[in-house]
Description:
single chain, about 400 residues, alpha/beta, six-stranded mixed sheet, about 30% helix, about 25% strand
Amino acid sequence: MVASSAGTPRIAVVGGGIGGLAAAAFLHRAGLPVTVYEQAQQVKEVGAGLVLAPNAVRLLRRLGALDALRDSAVPLDVGWEFRRWADGRVLSAEDLAGACARLYGERTYTLHRADLLDAIAAVVPAGTVQLGKRCTAVTVPGDTVQLTFTDGTAAEADVVIGADGVHSTVRGAVTEPAPATYSGMCAFRAIVPADRAPDFARRRAQTLWIGPDHHLVHYPISGGAAVNLVAFAPAGDVTVESWSATATVAEFLAEFAGWDPRLQDLIAQAGTPGRWALLDREPLHRWSRGPVTLLGDAAHPMFPFFAQGAAQSIEDAAVLAACLAADRHAPARALQRYESLRIGRTTRLQQISHARAHVNHLPDGPEQQARDAALAAADPLVDSAWIYAYDPDTADTATG
């Protein structure tokens, strides 16, 4: 497909979350104009905390978005601190304060998702985002792509990027539609004010309590003013997949009955927790078709067990912008290049994140004991170098 007459493709991003705004920011940085269509009436992020690893931090620094997080992001001293469910015994931990920056040039941070979205939005030019635009159809009738919205309007573009999440509408223009399946797990999320959290949860640490059929993660956010909790348990009859779905503290506590009393004390201080079913999708074999491509969860939704969902969408954005900038007169070819550079890496992360559910949730016994011994012997910070050292500007283009 040939770009517009001016030689610069008209680019539309569907979805104004972290991935969509990162795409807009990197495209703007590359000198490519872009319009973001967001279904909400304002740019905001729901949910709670996330972990920002060095592979994402270096890209945010490159965008000029990192300074805005100086007061809200918490630099971790300890990461991937695995604790035994019954007594809190530490099985393994990373020394992030001493080694992370030395190995990868950046620290690891925890923060609220809304703070990250605000920081990225601040480097996107005013007027880029159109709100209240829920996309219902994407068609490619000829040399351009047509977008249709629920408000009765339409738009035309040379390139369309679907950053519209696990329930992506844009995906239907790329591959055969297929519904997500339920994983059999549900997630709880809650935020505890720091002044109500026990001392062990206020440390600058990302801690994972692992046990039979469950695990729980906690870390400080919002400059240390709060502690984020996210936990995973069997879904039972929970089938709602929505960040606005809720549970009660009593239900949350019941899932972790018999666990270390300190953890029970932390859960008891939570406000109304969110609870929703985790969806599962097989990795896509392709996510670009002609002038349409996908990004982030629309392309490769992954279980959050390696804390790489947001990071991978930011990486996607950086690579996509570089590919389009390098081949702006043939955007369909640029999108194929982008896919080839990204799909192997994101598929691998989808697969290992999926497998981690089994590893984290082993019942007590020989397999659990072997896992705990392996955790004690491992150096996860070094073992994960392929994740954290990645830089789109220097990555081997033969493998992505």
